[in-house]
C-alpha cells in the first residue's frame, strides 16, 4: 500500500474528495479493448465449427472489472452487434452469408445479453461498495486530522516533523499517538502507544491527547504533567467499568525542551526511550528509571522520575513507537533502528522521517505488522563552528 505517511500533509478538503472513486490500473481499463482486438485477430483464422466470436459473451464481465454499469451495458450491446457482424461476414473462414440467425448464434446473442445484465448488476454493486469505502476513508481522514493534528513544522527555534503509518491497508487511525505543544515552560512533546486495537484504542488515544493538550499549559513540572494525565485516564477508565479498565493502559514518553536552555527533560512511562542524534553519536536516552505505563501507575505506586539530558544546537531527537523496532524482514530479523539512524544522522527531521518511512516499507516487504508513529525534533545549529 501506500500507507498514510506524514500527517503534516493535509489531505484534500471538500465533498468531492469524499465521493471520488479510486482509479483502476491502466492495464485494467484497456483490457476490454485488448479482448476485442484479440477476437478480431483470431476470428478469420478459425474454422466454421468453432468461431471465436462466441467468446465475446465474456466481454461484459471483462468490462465490469474497471467500469461502471453504463459502460458495461454499452459493452453488452456492442458485443451482441459484433457477434452479429462476424456471423454474417462471409470472409471469415469461408463462412457463407446466412449464419446471422443460425440457432447457435442466436443462443450466443441471448447468452451475451444475460451475461451483460449480470455484469451490469455486478458493476453497479462494485461501484456502490467503492463509493462506500471512499466515504468511510474520508471520515477516517477527518478523524485522523482531529485526533492527530499536524504538528507545527517550527516551534520557536525547533524544527519538527511527524510520521504515522498504519499496518492495515485501509486503516487511517489507531492507538499510536503524538503531540507537540508550545507552552510557557517550553515545547512539550508526547508520544504514546495504546494497548489494543480498534475503536477502544482510538477512544483511549483521544482521551489521552485531550488531557495532555490541556494539562501541558498548566503544570510547571513534567512529572506533575504525567501524573495529571494519568489521573484523567484513571477517571475515564473508571467511568467505563467492566473488565476493560485494566487493559486501557498506554506506554508514553513526555519530553520538555525549555526555550533558551541546552537541555531536555524526559519522563518515560514504559515506552521505548527517545533517541538523541548528535554528530556521529546515536544514543538512547534511558537510565533505567522508567515508570509504569499510564493507567497502571496507581497499581504500582511508583513516582515519576524526570531525567535531564543535554540538547545542544545541531542535536536531533527522535520519539517513536515500538512498531518501528518490532518491524521484521522476511527472515524474521528486527528492524535495526539505531544502525539506520547512524547513516542518516545528518538529515533534517522531514527528510529523516521520509527516509525512515520508505526504509520500513522496503525492510518489511510492504507488510507492516503494527501501527507506527514517530516524531522528530531538531535544534538547528546556527553557528557551524559552535560546540
UniProtKB/TrEMBL annotation:
Domain PPM-type phosphatase: 160-379
SUPFAM superfamilies, sorted: PP2C-like
Transmembrane portions of the chain: 26-42, 54-80, 104-124
Alphabetical keyword list: Hydrolase, Membrane, Transmembrane, Transmembrane helix
Superkingdom of this protein's organism: Bacteria
SMART domains in alphabetical order: PP2C_SIG
One Pfam family of this chain: SpoIIE
PANTHER family per record: STAGE II SPORULATION PROTEIN E (PTHR43156:SF2), STAGE II SPORULATION PROTEIN E-RELATED (PTHR43156)
Entry protein name: PPM-type phosphatase domain-containing protein
Species: Streptomyces rubradiris
